[in-house]
Amino acid sequence: MEPWQKILQSSITTPNGLQEHVDCDSNALLDVIANFPMRINPYFLKLIQHPGDPLWKQAVPDPAEIHDGICTDDPLGEENLSPVPNLVHKYPDRVLFLVSNTCAMYCRFCTRKRKVGTDKMRISPDTLNAGYAYMRQHPEIREVLISGGDPLLLPDEDIAAILHNLRSIRSIEIIRIGTRVPSVLPMRITRKLVSILKAHHPLYINTHFNHPNEITAESSKACTMLADAGIPMGCQTVLLKGINDDAQTLKKLFVGLLRIRVKPYYLFQADLTKGTNHFRTTTETGIAIMRQLYGHISGMAIPTYALDGPNGKGKIPLTPQYIMERGDTLVFENFKGEICTYPEAGESC
Ligand SMILES: *Cc1c(COP(=O)(O)O)cnc(C)c1O
Ligand code: SF4
């Protein structure tokens, strides 16, 4: 067994196990875990500073998860948009391909909470083969996003086989991997894994960090190893109430990510996933935060703030409004709130 597999094996998965390490009401958590699994690995556990801190809230179950009367199981309509199981074809030129049903930690706010980490998510050689066949029959698909679950929790040989199969489809140009391993189990990024990934370029990785406390010596090393292998690294952060819903925290996170060569790509408005309503902020909060970022930190550190439209409508960018008046002259505010003008083409300056 590899060292990262051993670490994963000593994860906390039961309320009693959790109680040995932190103060919590384990009875209240039993019901939650019966619905939505828990996995807190020793690496991530060490990063939690105190009960209720931003990392705790991402990892430790909350009774609010089973008292969510507002949200739905599959808000993005993924199951309806799947022509074959575990493959979502929503956009014309790219597909989402789910290849793993486990993660190095079960994030309490997960969008695929309905099935990730449970036997409701069935991945098998048959579903993988059906996915390859679908992509072969649809040459308009230029890009495949491998996700799950976390694809990088699969054994090296399985990852190599998936990448090899995808590379044998001539119309697939870009392979993108979505993985939270760099922030929750960075020791999974081994030299062997990096050499497998590197052999299948052009390959991009979008990872997932939500709080500056996740940027550690270990996670920095993992991202550096991937970047050194020529893999462009992006980050998909979720805007989470009580975790990162303020400009100071997100500035620190996004600037810190650039330093470890990860480009903030998306900041997601929380989806309407059942069991996660207590993490939702208003979009007004998100837009106000974005306004405090534009111009104030490097443009490279600024992600697109996006809402994934319910029922599979796709991602919609939510951008602060700078334009105040349109006409022969455009009137707008700058990042400092100063009023500026710009004469449109054809007008005199
Ligand atoms: C998010 C998503 C993508 C990728 O969208 P990008 O804007 O290219 O990052 C593709 N397919 C599905 C189903 C998605 O949810
Ligand atoms: S790593 Fe991603 S897929 Fe896995 S539980 Fe967290 S959010 Fe969900």
Task: Give a quick set of tags describing it.
alpha/beta; TIM Barrel; globular; binds pyridoxal-5'-phosphate
Please provide a written account of the structure.
This protein is α/β, with parallel strands linked by helices and about 350 residues long. It has two domains: about 5-10 and about 40-320, TIM Barrel; about 320-349, no CATH class. It is about 30% helix and about 15% strand. The chain contains twelve helices and twelve strands. It has helices spanning about 5-10, 15-20, 25-35, 40-45, 55-60, 125-135, 155-165, 180-185, 190-200, 215-230, 245-260, 285-295; strands at about 85-90, 95-100, 145, 175-180, 205, 235-240, 260-270, 305-310, 315, 325, 330-335, 340-345. A nine-stranded mixed sheet has the order 1-2-3-4-5-6-7-8-9. Helix 7 packs parallel to helix 9 (about 190-200). The longest helix is centred in the middle third of the chain and has 13 residues, at about 125-135. It starts with a helix and ends in a 6-residue tail after the last strand. The model has no long low-confidence stretch (mean pLDDT about 95). It binds pyridoxal-5'-phosphate (PLP) and iron/sulfur cluster (SF4). Pyridoxal-5'-phosphate (PLP) binds near residues 90, 145 and 315.
Distance between the termini: 70 Å
* Structural class estimated from helices and strands: alpha/beta
Strand fraction equals 15-25%
Strand/helix succession: HHHHHEEHEHEHHEHEHEHEEEEE
Q: Quick one: how many beta strands?
A: 12
CATH homologous superfamily of the largest domain - what is it?
Aldolase class I
Number of helices, where a helix is a run of at least 4 consecutive DSSP H or I residues? 12
What is the makeup of the main sheet? Answer: 9 strands, mixed
